[in-house]
Amino acid sequence: MVSKAQLRILAWLSKQPDSLEKSWDVSREISLPGIAEGIGVVRSALNVPLTKLEQDGLITKRMAHVIGGGNRRRQVYHITGSGRAQISESEMQLPKQERLYKIYGNPPNASEIFGRKDETVRCLEILLKNSLMVTGMPGIGKSAFVLNLCQELAGKFQIRWAAAEYFSDYHSIASSWYPEKPVPKDLDAICHMIESSAVMLVIDDVNLISERHIEKVQELVSKLTKTENIRIILLSRESSDLFGQFDNFKLDALDLESCCNMLGEHLPLTEREKVVNSLGNHPLALKLYQPEHETPESSKDVVEYVENVVLTALSDDQKHVISRLSLEPKMMTVENSIAVDDIDLLDEQNLVRWNNGNLFELQHLIRNVTRNNLAPNERKDGHKFLAEHWKSQNTDGSFESYLYHLSRSNLIEFITQLSTEINSLNNHDSAALATIVADSLIENETNSELRYLESKIAAHRFEPSIIRNNLSSHTGDQLIEMEFILAQIEGRVARYESELGELLKQKSPLEGARLLISLASQVLEDRLPSAPINEESRNKVEHYFKQIKLKDIHHGRQSIIVAMSMLKHSIAMADFDFVLGDNIIQSLIGVGSIDDTIILNLRTKEVIAKYLSQSMVIEEVGTLVDANCLMIENTLMADSLRLRFIELLIEENPELAKTRFAQLTKPEGFSRTNTTIRYSARWWLLHSKIHPNSAKSSLREALVRYREAGCINASIELEKLFHTQF
Hints:
Blueprint: H1 4-13, E1 25-26, H2 32-39, H3 47-55, E2 59-66, E3 73-79, H4 81-89, E4 103-105, H5 117-127, E5 132-135, H6 142-153, E6 158-163, H7 170-177, H8 187-194, E7 199-204, H9 211-224, E8 230-236, E9 247-250, H10 256-262, H11 269-278, H12 283-288, H13 302-310, H14 316-325, H15 343-348, E10 352-354, E11 360-362, H16 364-372, H17 376-391, H18 398-407, H19 411-421, H20 430-443, H21 448-460, H22 464-470, H23 476-489, H24 493-505, H25 509-525, H26 535-546, H27 557-574, H28 578-591, H29 596-612, H30 618-631, H31 635-652, H32 654-662, H33 674-690, H34 695-708, H35 712-725
Parallel strand pairs: 1-2, 4-6, 5-8, 5-9, 6-7, 7-8
Antiparallel strand pairs: 2-3, 10-11
Helix pairs in contact: 8-9, 8-34, 10-11, 17-18, 18-20, 20-21, 21-22, 21-23, 23-24, 25-26, 25-27, 27-28, 27-29, 28-29, 29-30, 29-31, 30-31, 31-32, 31-33, 33-34, 34-35
């Protein structure tokens, strides 16, 4: 006779295909921790039923490598043909074997929960009218509860889940909600993108978001909750005044019967009740419980239980790993973490939690207890150790983790390291760097170097208010630079023009020339596609060119000559002056050692201009654009030309334009520079035409990106169009 506990195990294992039995890499779902997590019981409750199932030939076990679970092989279980037959013959009502809905984003691993029926009913009643904040202490089961709550709502709402971390900002939250599509950076554009659909948006661990970013997240949430067909569920350790418009539901301890079910059936009911009562009916405390642990004599505070029982049972080496993991700011892969050799034990004892992408971190209850018990010198030593560890890694996010720990162990070295990278922010997570610097300023608020770094990061993120707040901390060249950047961001052209002379004085001739070239390019691009270049823009470009002193540039002169020639060629093509354009190309060829990509780029622009002058047909232009772009190795340059062609093609062949547009590199695929911001503006403008259902969001994003690139006239034109259409 197969027991109910055994059937639940078989049902869970039956989700996996038979082909997995011979695979070297397998899912964590068929390991002991994965099975326990999936069916919602403690690990020790599986020992007896697994042994019986194996003896009866309903399952087999073997050693295999668990994907994302470290380097060592682990014990995994497979259901046999007899086991599958047993399930099909059983009349017992089993838990759903497949999720009946799709959750977009990064939800936790699905798991069955016991009890919580009354809580579910109450929360469903709230969500009929309002958004919801679910609060409760770490480990009480908030994520699992809300995950199952979403199943009840999937028929009415599309479900999208974002797991917040310490470095999260509003854009990373929205990107987690919508991993399948490009997400605008402008907050209002994001709201426009979301507002047209009935959607349930979840932010797990919203309490982890740093002070640096929480206000923008709150603004995003506040705007979205005003839309009738949107509901938001926030999960937090405690309620927050920032989200006062939400109904707060506190998730308390689990009922006695459900807790006993979590402990399995191998212990007598009286013994299980004793364990449950002694651990305060706390779900995670029950999952942390091991039979070898001494059962507390009376109900204890969960934190005290973790401190005095769970963590005390670890070896000294394991305690060191736990203490260092408690200092990590975000989830990580096992292979790149310091826990790569200990993950089996940590997972077996339920000390870590996972997301569905095989990232892990300490259980928050374990993390909080451990971190709070560290002395200041222990914290500093731990951060120093982790800084050295992450410095040696070479994966996405490792540099940010390195700087995070370095900022807490060696502030001077942190400032030095970030200063060397401050002009290459497009290679790093600016939300993380902004958080790290803001935290460093809490205890070092008068440090002018940190203030400068914060301003540079804010300029990169298009956050003028932070730059303005820091102006009083800057002096000399830094003050001139930041005042110039602030004027640019805010579109105060007369102001930054008046400060340009002072800024050029502090730069080398080559640096100054590059700045002037950048400004000239910005002026020429400050127009909507196919619009003419006005006289004022021509005069400005000439004014910038006159300030470039080529004779003073000893190294890099040729690059400046090429850049100036390319801008002159753009003007010639706008005027359909093909003779002048060809002369410019021939002069570049005569210079020698010029990259063929440059010539191909100019020749392609010439072809497009000939179409606009009605001397070529669109099919011929398309063939030449494709042929030339295939030979251009610079992806940004090639895709900018393809984008320009699609801007023309959409008027004649919308369907072909849509197909070609889908093949372009999305804006986030490029490092962030003035050129790529302008590409982004044009990409989103074209997106608004190709996907009219999202035109409101796309057009808003395009005008903000034009504004961010300093193209004020183009942004004004788009703003007029935006208000006219919507």
